[in-house]
Amino acid sequence: MKFIIGSDIHGSKARVQKLLDRFYAEKGDKLILLGDIYNHGPRNPLPEEYAPMQVAELLNEITDKLIVIKGNCDSEVDAMISRFDFLEGLCIVSGNKSVFCTHGHVYNRENPPKTAFDAVVYGHFHTSFITEENGVIYANPGSVSLPKGGTLPAYIVLEEGAFTLKDLDGNVISENR
Q: What is the DSSP letter of 20?
C-alpha cells in the first residue's frame, strides 16, 4: 500500500489542492493528514487562500481514501463540518515496519512514545525531515501551507517501509530506504 502523508494545512485551499494533486499523481492508496487541518492557529499568519470551509469540501469528497489525525488546532467544531473522523493516533504497518502516526505536539523525536515502533511520523513543528536515531526512523512532512526553518511545503511517500520526502512539485528532498 502506498501512503501519502501531509500535515498542517491550516485552512489553505491552494495548498490542500496541490497536495491532492500530488496524491493522485503519486497514485496513492491512502492520504494521511497529521492534523491542524482548518484553523491557522493564533501564532501563525493566515496561509495562502485561507478558506477552511472549502478545504472541508475538498477533503469530504475523498473520505474513502482519507485518514486524519487530530492536531492541537483541531476542535469539535471541525469535526462537525467533516465527513471523516479525527483520530488521536494511528499505527500502520508498511513493509516490515510498524509506523506510529501522530500530530507531534505530544509524541515526537524529543518525546518518543513508550511503545516500541520502527518509525514515528508527525507534523506540528512545520519543519520537514527524515532521520534515524537508535534504530527508529523519525519523519516529519513539515507543513503543506506554513513551512518553517527554511523548509519547503512538502509531503512524505511511505511505501513498503521506505520513506521519501518530496516538495509539492514532486521533487525528492530526502529518503530513507
A: H
Number of H helices, E strands in the chain: 3, 12
Residue in the block written with cell 520526502: 165
pLDDT at 134: 93
- Write out the three cell numbers for 58: 475538498
Residue 98 bridge partners (DSSP): 93
Closest CA to 25 of 171, 175, 173, 177: 171
Compute the distance between CA of residue 100 and CA of residue 78 in angstroms, rounded to an integer.
23
Model pTM greater than 0.85? yes
pLDDT tens-place string over residues 87-98: 999 999 999 999
Please give the pLDDT value at position 42.
81
Dist CA 97 CA 74 (whole Å): 28
Output 111-120 pairs: Cβ under 8 A, ≥24 positions apart: 112/136, 117/91, 118/161, 119/163
Q: Grid coordinates in use for 8?
A: 498542517
Q: How many CA atoms lie within 13 A of 10 on its CB side?
A: 22
What H or E segment, with its residue span, contains residue 14? helix 13-25
Task: List pLDDT tens digits, range 26-52.
Answer: 999 999 999 999 998 888 888 889 999
